[in-house]
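Module 6 notes. Inverse folding takes a fixed backbone as the condition and produces residue identities as the prediction. Think of it as a translation problem where the source language is geometry and the target language is the twenty amino acids. Below is one complete input and output pair. Work through it position by position during the lab.
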């Protein structure tokens, strides 16, 4: 079995002391919050998914069985367990069980395929994987069995049922078997309590795409992510107890505000495994949903639902939209047609939701990306790191209670992203006189498609293996609903040039996630280059898309 993972963090005792003395960090564990809230809510709903509703009491029983089952199969404090699950109750239950025994959660989106998952696994080295038989027609469990040939540190693959009768895969363990192992276990509560980690130990590793193409493993502790849930509840959902999550639970948005915030609030969360706006409207009516958060396109999708004005959405109070600016016409429609307050938000895997609006903000402020949350700071600086005047564009920096504690790759990578104690976000922004920021662009080479970061270099590297491609650059093409999609600009290697269908078919063969595939294609004879040999993508966008 894999040994306990050593995590090299940037966390210092000075930072711990400052955050605790200010009250920003509470030194609590999510499992303790779950236990405290569950003590008075045993018969109340905790989570609703496609198979119905589970109460707090039912969840408490299953979490204890899971925790003991995980210990019985050899999972220990400090070991990483990878969760590649859709939005369903098993995700929430597994998180609680892993935190109960001090293991480290590594959420991985169910859309990711072997090309991406193998890189993440090589970095986090999970001792076990919890997944499903299949997701949207793709055999996830079978993929992980194949991957284990390259990832021998994975000791167990636990498979949750798909809902269809089928033969179990060999060399895997079913979710039911894991529960049974826990139910038969003789491990005591006292023994489990001895495993409880420090609230400043790493409890989450989540991957994000970087400019180099290699995913970066972002490390958080109980303190850095619990405060994210606390601040979100305080700022936008203080009076809410029924939550919704349609974004994947394996992204920081879904993980924090679809798992940790509802548990902290003592609430009820309703999951959608696949975003469907008409279904969402029905869920609001059926369950009295009060708050949700998702990618900006979700709002436009909801407004486009047939018969929306005749639906009873009166319970809906707060809708936070992040990942891209909210178009003003969409904001105006939402103001006139929805009972909820639509609020903007900006954040990163490294810093959670860092800025957001308030429910009492004037309408004009909702066209920004919000103001920073308490206990945190943002500033806009020039290339020398000096703050610029309000209204001036510059590089956005962040620091405070929400800041992650390091990248799993090590101190050198982490330190390269900080200047004078401030985290360089890689975003360009303008701040107004009231401290509200507006994101104006990105210095990082990432395309954000419907809130999903596309790892540009990774896709480019795969496309370069195609025999008909001599050179390639992936650029962002504006898209009305998704914000951006990828446009592949290629220098062909001979005639005829490959078609978009041929390129995406090649990416499919190479195991690249479908959402990362380019959705437009352009050909050029040569790329505009810098003297040092780098492609000038801003000139390429002007040439191909007419952007200036």
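Target side of the pair, the amino acids:
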């Amino acid at each position: 079995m894999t040994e306990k993972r050593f995590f090299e963090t940037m966390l210092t005792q000075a930072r711990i002391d400052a955050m605790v003395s200010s009250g920003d960090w509470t030194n609590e564990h999510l499992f303790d919050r779950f236990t405290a809230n569950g003590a008075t809510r045993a018969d109340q709903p905790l989570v609703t998914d496609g198979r119905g509703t589970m109460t707090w009491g039912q969840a408490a029983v299953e979490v204890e069985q899971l925790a003991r089952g995980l210990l019985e199969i050899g999972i220990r404090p400090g070991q990483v367990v990878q969760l590649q699950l859709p939005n369903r109750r098993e995700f929430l239950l597994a998180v609680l069980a892993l935190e109960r025994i001090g293991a480290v959660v590594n959420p991985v989106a169910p859309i990711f395929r072997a090309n991406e998952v193998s890189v993440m696994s090589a970095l986090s080295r999970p001792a076990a994987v919890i997944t499903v038989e299949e997701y949207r027609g793709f055999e996830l469990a079978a993929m992980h069995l194949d991957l284990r040939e390259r990832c021998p540190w994975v000791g167990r693959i636990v498979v949750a049922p798909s809902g269809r009768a089928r033969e179990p895969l060999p060399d895997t363990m079913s979710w039911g078997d894991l529960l049974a192992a826990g139910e038969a276990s003789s491990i005591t509560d006292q023994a489990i309590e001895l495993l409880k980690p420090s609230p400043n130990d790493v409890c989450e590793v989540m991957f994000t795409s970087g400019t180099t193409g290699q995913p970066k493993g972002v490390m958080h502790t109980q303190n850095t992510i619990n405060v994210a849930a606390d601040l979100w509840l305080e700022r936008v959902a203080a009076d809410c107890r029924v939550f919704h999550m349609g974004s994947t639970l394996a992204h920081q948005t879904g993980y924090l505000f679809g798992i940790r915030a509802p548990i902290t609030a003592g609430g009820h969360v309703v999951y959608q495994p696949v975003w469907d706006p008409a279904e969402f409207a029905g869920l609001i009516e059926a369950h009295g949903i009060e708050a949700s958060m998702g990618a900006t396109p979700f709002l436009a999708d909801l407004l486009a639902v047939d018969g929306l004005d005749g639906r009873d959405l009166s319970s809906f109070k707060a809708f936070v939209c992040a990942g891209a600016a909210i178009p003003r016409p969409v904001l105006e429609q939402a103001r006139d047609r929805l009972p909820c307050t639509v609020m903007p938000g900006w954040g990163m895997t490294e810093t959670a939701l860092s800025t957001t609006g308030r429910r009492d903000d004037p309408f004009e402020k909702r066209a920004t990306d919000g103001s920073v949350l308490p206990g945190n700071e943002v500033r806009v600086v020039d290339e020398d790191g000096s703050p610029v005047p309000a209204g001036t564009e510059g590089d956005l920096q962040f620091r405070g209670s929400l800041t992650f504690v390091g990248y799993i790759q090590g101190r050198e990578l982490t330190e390269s992203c900080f200047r004078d104690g401030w985290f360089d976000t890689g975003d360009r922004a303008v701040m107004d006189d009231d401290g509200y920021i507006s994101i104006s662009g990105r210095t990082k080479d990432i395309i954000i498609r419907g809130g999903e970061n596309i790892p540009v270099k990774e896709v480019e590297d795969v496309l370069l293996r195609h025999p008909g491609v001599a050179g390639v650059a992936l650029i962002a093409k504006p898209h009305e609903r998704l914000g951006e999609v990828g446009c592949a600009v290629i220098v062909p290697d001979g005639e005829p040039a490959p078609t978009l269908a041929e390129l995406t078919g090649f990416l499919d063969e190479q195991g690249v996630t479908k959402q990362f595939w380019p959705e437009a294609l352009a050909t050029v004879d040569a790329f505009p280059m810098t003297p040092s040999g780098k492609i000038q993508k801003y000139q390429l966008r002007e040439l191909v898309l007419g952007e200036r």
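Reference fact for the lab report: The radius of gyration is 23 Å.
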